[in-house]
Specification:
Elements: H1 20-28, H2 45-54, H3 62-72, H4 77-87, H5 92-95, H6 99-111, E1 116-120, H7 126-134, E2 140-145, H8 149-160, E3 167-171, H9 174-183, E4 190-195, H10 202-212, E5 213-222, H11 238-251, E6 256-261, E7 267-272
Parallel strand pairs: 1-2, 1-4, 2-3, 4-5
Antiparallel strand pairs: 5-7, 6-7
Helix pairs in contact: 4-8, 6-7, 9-10
Length: 273
């Protein structure tokens, strides 16, 4: 209230921290802190813990994930059919992107106004389809995979979505394909590049992609938390090592602006300066 003395703060406690009689008055005056227990003072350890947890990463269980999907996900029949078809394959459910991630990729394509997209790692083309749909009619998407077996599954669904003409599949070792693009004058020719291939080669793909994306363009690197294995000191396999190396490289790379998102299996965004 006007004219009242400023509230006292406890030494060592940040200004605005919830504690003491002032915090209790907030509850009594109807300004309840969401998630706290009305039967306990706000400086009670349980309430303090709840308030602290609200400021950190929220754990997503099945019910909350269902809520997110109900209020955000726009997966139509074509995407859903491709997802179901993919889950029938050995390891298909693990290898394909979450529906929410596919929608996020489409949003990134639209936000960056991309007309040229490169995808490193096609699998059955769920993410391919999401991004191709977000392109303008004259846009193009080049996607690379080690085998044509998996992209051939997606081709049917790309056709159903009427985006086949925007998509070019290149089959072979991704590193060799990217090197060929660079030698053919493709540097700085893509607006957005999505990397989701073999993790052992992530550091190499990152360096190649950084040459192929235009200044101001966006790199999207998938699986950068790699099932939590990045924290496991006993995990020294090539894939985990590759993910750790690319994470450290991007963190220290002043050629890009970076943000690692703790969603799905970890998604890192790197904007080329």
């Amino acid at each position: 209230m006007a004219g009242s003395a400023p509230p006292r703060t406890t030494p060592g406690r940040a200004r605005g921290a919830f504690s003491g009689p002032i915090a209790d008055r907030r509850i009594r005056h109807g300004r309840k802190i969401i998630g706290t227990d009305d039967n306990r003072p706000l400086n009670d350890p349980i309430n303090q813990s709840r308030v602290a947890n609200m400021a950190n990463q929220l754990g997503i269980g099945p019910e909350l994930l269902g809520y997110v999907r109900e209020h955000s996900l726009r997966e139509d029949d074509i995407l859903r059919d491709l997802r179901v078809r993919t889950t029938e394959l050995p390891g298909g459910e693990t290898m394909q992107v979450m529906a929410e991630e596919g929608q996020f990729l489409a949003l990134l394509v639209a936000l960056t106004r991309a007309t040229a997209v490169l995808e490193v790692g096609t699998f059955t083309g769920y993410s391919t389809l999401c991004m191709a749909r977000a392109l303008p009619p004259h846009g193009r998407l080049v996607t690379c995979d080690i085998s044509d077996r998996w992209p051939e599954i997606g081709a049917e669904f790309w056709h159903r979505a009427d985006v086949s003409e925007r998509i070019e599949v290149r089959v072979g070792e991704a590193a060799e394909i990217l090197d060929t693009m660079i030698s053919d004058g493709g540097s700085s020719s893509f607006d957005l590049i999505f990397i989701d291939a073999d993790k052992a080669n992530y550091p190499r793909y990152y360096e190649q992609a950084l040459r192929l994306v235009r200044p101001g363009g966006l790199l999207v690197v998938d699986n950068t938390l790699f099932f939590g294995r990045v924290l496991d000191p006993l995990a020294e396999d090539p894939d985990t090592t590759g993910v750790r190396e690319v994470n450290a490289r991007i963190r220290d790379d002043h050629r890009v602006d970076v943000c690692m998102l703790a969603v799905a299996d970890g998604i890192t965004l790197a904007r080329r300066r």
